[in-house]
Design goal:
Layout: E1 4-8, E2 11-13, H1 20-29, E3 32-40, E4 43-44, H2 47-61, H3 68-77, E5 83-92, E6 106-114, H4 120-125, E7 127-137, H5 152-163, E8 168-173, E9 178-181, E10 185-190, E11 193-197, H6 207-218, E12 223-226, E13 238-243, E14 247-254, E15 258-259, H7 264-281
Length: 282
């Protein structure tokens, strides 16, 4: 397998074969959506849940969805043993103006490459995060519920993290409640309870977020979704982030608001998460 496999509208291509006319509307207007997935031993982890979220996003954006069986087969046929990164992109073909003119037809591009995990030290020590001063999630906007090709807010958060010498940034919503990380959901642990922002706080309903709920139900751990001000963090025991690529990531510090003393609760969740991952992909 090459370092990166590209599948454009069902055909394996070299990147030079994809030209501006194919990419134009996605590039000019960000008029599309995407999903990022991970596979192991040629099995995609939680494909159905990722697909369902893409279908929801496509409905919001009035986009035509390709055949599910075709997409899944294309991906699986081009995977290899071990861990792979998968990104499925979907964007409107035409017109060239900002108006959609009721056009729903789409292009799709699947990108597959070797998965490069986050540094091991993050899982052992935790990430250092800051609180963003530049970005607020709009909890009143439907855009916060989908994975849009326009990733500018997330990029600004990453730039802000670099300037603040942080590994990531935590974002508040328009009403001042904790929403999420730059590309992740956030959870807090306090007295063996798990707390997490409600989706009404402008956070994306993550796939790994759902796994946390599943683990909690099985282990009889109480989870509370709600609205939490940043000061809520001051007496929390642990904080962790989740997304498909990082899995479950401990947070060492949120500058000015939280410092961890131990990560034993999070480490146990990581263990349970890995068991589920291996069971479904092993």
């Amino acid at each position: 397998m090459k370092s990166e496999t590209l599948l454009f509208n069902g055909k394996k291509v070299d990147e030079k074969e994809i030209n501006f006319s194919h990419l134009k509307r996605g590039f000019l207007y960000g008029d599309g959506i995407f999903e990022t997935m991970i596979s192991f031993n040629k099995k995609i982890f939680r494909f159905q849940q990722h697909w369902d979220r893409m279908v929801f996003g496509a409905k919001v954006c009035n986009l035509e969805v390709p055949n599910k069986k075709l997409i899944e087969k294309l991906i699986v046929d081009n995977l290899k043993e071990g861990l792979c990164y998968i990104r499925l992109n979907l964007w409107r073909k035409r017109p060239n103006t900002i108006s959609t003119e009721k056009e729903k037809e789409t292009n799709f591009l699947i990108i597959i490459r070797d998965f490069k995990p986050y540094p091991e030290k993050f899982y052992k020590e935790g990430m250092v995060c800051g609180l963003s001063k530049k970005i607020r999630r709009n909890n009143y906007s439907i855009i916060s519920k989908i994975k849009s090709l326009n990733f500018l807010e997330n990029i600004i958060l990453k730039i802000e993290a670099e300037k603040e010498r942080c590994d990531d940034m935590i974002v508040l919503d328009s009403s001042g409640y904790i929403s999420e990380g730059s590309v992740s959901n956030i959870f807090f642990v306090k007295d063996n309870f798990i707390y997490t922002p409600s989706v009404e706080c402008g956070c994306l309903e993550g796939i790994t977020r759902r796994v946390i709920f599943e683990i909690s139900e099985k282990e009889n751990i109480k989870v509370k979704e709600g609205r939490f001000k940043i000061d809520f963090l001051s007496d929390c025991d642990e904080v962790f982030l989740t997304n498909t690529l990082m899995g479950i990531m401990p947070v060492k510090e949120i500058k000015g608001y939280f410092k961890v003393k131990k990560i034993s609760f999070t480490e146990n969740l990581i263990k349970k998460y890995k068991e589920i991952f291996i069971k479904e992909t092993g």
